[in-house]
Model the fold of this input.
Amino acid sequence: MEILMRNLLLILLMLSSGAYAKCTAHDAWHGEDKALHFVGVAAVSGYVGAATERPEYGLAWGVGIAAAKEALDATGSGDCTLQDFAVGVAGALAGYAGAKWVLIPRAHGATVAYSRSF
Done:
């Protein structure tokens, strides 16, 4: 499984590597678009990290998804911007960190715990 995940990520990155020549760097750093990039990539990163019990896989998949989305935009199906990619990477980092934390609801609040296997 580890080899399959690594190979799929490498394929994604190779396909998207030349696309950034068409990306712009003149986009706003705020707005609903950026929130969607952040939350979407954070969700993927956190889910993959928690499901595989390897948060670094979630981080790698999150960055790969952010790169693939901008590569797709560079083909003409959207606006490829470096800001969107940067916000996606920030979301992947948030998902990576979130995959290690557990939120347990309680009657009067919540318990937050850090989870790590050794």
Summary: Residues 32-114 form one domain. The CA atoms of residues 24 and 30 lie 16 Å apart. The two ends are 20 Å apart (CA to CA).
